[in-house]
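Tokens for chain A. Residues wanted.
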């Protein structure tokens, strides 16, 4: 599944950065709900700095599963065998589980540890604010390394291939060239936004995703990933708007009902994180 980029040791996904891969069950999000999480004797980690990315593996290049907010409590399941140094902090990665059941890895430098008792946390889904999402544009990038004579589809496929291998700077060059050759090809803008998101430039990711939404307005993953990028740059109102829109759309690439539900859960968790930061 590759549409997530889904929101970085902290950067918010949804990579729920997310790619075209999951799916969901539509659900009305205007009701007020209350959940209770029992800690018992489990080890608990609390997010001390957020937004914080939960990743698919204990490494900064792991795909983002969901974005966590400051103060969120996580059940600690295991720690990585080796330490890593990030932001001058040397510690382990920890595999954790959220109160919603999402599991993944987070860097321990952004957690505090202890135990907790049963708590009840009310969560209210607020109405969608009215904000201007904007038309998007093609971010500037150096395309001098891209050979001449390639079609936009060839550039697009090459860009996707470089992204899959983790060479995001080269992917950005090819995908930018694809967009230059065909300014109306929405998938190229989506992949460009994804590459920028993984590369760590969320402002340019926003530009590309906004342009993609203008060309493919009913795409679930573009809305989810744009919401994540908005969270990462601190524009929480816009994040809420596009993530609520995502929950009304059908995720592409879902082969099973569970995959669809997992995709919607990613968007719901990103939405919840954005609303709590308003």
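Reply:
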């Amino acid at each position: 599944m590759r549409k997530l980029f889904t929101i970085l040791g902290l950067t918010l996904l949804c990579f729920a950065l997310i790619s075209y891969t999951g799916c969901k069950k539509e659900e009305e999000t205007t009701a007020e709900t209350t959940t209770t999480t029992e800690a018992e004797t489990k080890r608990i980690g609390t997010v001390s700095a957020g937004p914080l990315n939960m990743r698919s593996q204990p490494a900064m290049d792991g795909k983002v599963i969901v974005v966590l907010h400051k103060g969120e409590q996580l059940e600690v399941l295991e720690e990585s065998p080796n330490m890593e140094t990030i932001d001058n902090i040397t510690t382990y990665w920890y595999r954790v589980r959220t109160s919603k059941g999402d599991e993944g890895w987070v860097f321990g430098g952004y957690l505090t540890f202890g135990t907790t008792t049963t708590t009840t946390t009310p969560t209210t889904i607020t109405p969608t604010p009215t904000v201007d999402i904007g038309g998007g544009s093609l971010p500037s990038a150096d395309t001098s390394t891209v050979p001449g004579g390639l079609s936009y589809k060839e550039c697009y496929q090459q860009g996707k291939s470089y992204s899959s291998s983790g060479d995001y700077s080269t992917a950005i060059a090819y995908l930018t060239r694809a967009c230059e050759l065909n300014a109306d090809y929405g998938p190229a803008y989506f992949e460009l936004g994804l590459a920028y998101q993984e590369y760590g430039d969320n402002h340019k990711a926003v530009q590309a995703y906004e342009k993609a939404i203008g060309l493919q307005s009913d795409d679930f993953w573009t809305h989810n990933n744009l919401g994540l990028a908005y969270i990462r740059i601190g524009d929480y109102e816009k994040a809420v708007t596009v993530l609520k829109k995502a929950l009304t759309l059908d995720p592409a690439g879902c082969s099973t009902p569970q995959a669809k539900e997992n995709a919607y859960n990613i968007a719901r968790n990103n939405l919840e994180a954005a609303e709590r930061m308003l």
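The longest strand covers residues 73-86. Residues 1-31+48-68+134-278 form a domain with the Serine Threonine Protein Phosphatase 5, Tetratricopeptide repeat fold (CATH 1.25.40.10).
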